[in-house]
Amino acid sequence: DTEVTQTPKHLVMGMTNKKSLKCEQHMGHRAMYWYKQKAKKPPELMFVYSYEKLSINESVPSRFSPECPNSSLLNLHLHALQPEDSALYLCASSRSTVNTEAFFGQGTRLTVV
Amino acid sequence: EDQVTQSPEALRLQEGESSSLNCSYTVSGLRGLFWYRQDPGKGPEFLFTLYSAGEEKEKERLKATLTKKESFLHITAPKPEDSATYLCAVQETKAAGNKLTFGGGTRVLVKP
Q1: What distance in Å separates the CA atoms of residue A45 and residue B101, rounded to the nearest whole number?
Q2: Which of A72, B34, B47, B54 is the most buried (most CB within 10 A)?
Q3: Which residues contact B5 (CB under 8 A, 6 or more apart)?
Q4: Do A42 and A30 contact (CB within 8 A), yes or no?
Q5: For each of chain B's 112 residues, which pLDDT tens digit applies?
C-alpha cells in the first residue's frame, strides 16, 4: 500500500477564513512533506517533518502553519491567505529523510477568494 | 545552486511512436534521481529511482537511464494512456531533509 490520503480534495476559502488541510499515511513512513504546486509548474517544497519534528521550513509565510500530531498525520493550518496562495497543495511521505522515494497524495485544490 | 532542466517542454506522439525525454542536472553530488508521472489535477506518481551512472530501470513501456549529467526516460511504443506530465527530481548529497529539486516537467500527449 503506497497510499497517501489528503482531505479535502477541493477547498474554497475567503481571505479572512481559517481552514486546515489534512494528510494521512499508514505506510510507517517517518518523513512527511508539504508541497505547493501552481498550474504548469513543478512542486515546490514548503515543509519537511522528520520523526514528527519540523526539520525544514522553506521560508514559508506564517499564514501557513504545519502540524504533525503523530507519525501518520500531517496538517496544514491556513489563515488570512491571499488569492495568490491558490494552488494544488500536495502532501508526501517517505521512509526516512535520506535517499528514499517520496509518495504523494492526490492533493487539495485550494482557491482563495 | 542545484539546477534541473527537462526537455522538451512538450511532446506530441502518435501511438506506437517511441521517444525519449531528457533531464539534465547540475548538483555538487547526486544522492538520487527520481522520475514521477503526473496526471492533470492529481499528485505525482512515483516511477523510478536511480542512484548511480550506468543504472537503468524499466517498467512496462518506460525505461529510465542515468549518466553523470543527465537522465533519459525512454517511452517505447506509447499508448494514449501514457499521456501525462513526466517530472524528474534530484536529491543532492548535501540536501537536508530529503529535499527534492524538480525540473519543469515534460508534457507528453500520445494520440491514437
Answers
A1: 8
A2: B34
A3: B23, B24, B25, B103, B104
A4: no
A5: 668 999 999 999 999 999 999 999 998 888 899 999 999 999 999 999 999 999 999 999 999 999 999 999 999 999 999 999 999 999 887 777 678 899 999 999 999 9
Between chains, do A104 and B102 touch, taking CB under 8 Å as contact?
no
| Residue of B41, B98, B102 with shortest CB distance to A42 | B102
pLDDT digits (tens, 9 = 90+) for B64-83: 999 999 999 999 999 999 99
Q: Show the 3-state SS of chain A.
A: CCCEEEECCEEEECCCCEEEEEEEECCCCCEEEEEEECCCCCCEEEEEEECCEEEEECCCCCCEEEEEEECCEEEEEEECCCHHHCEEEEEEEECCCCCCCCEECCCEEEEEC
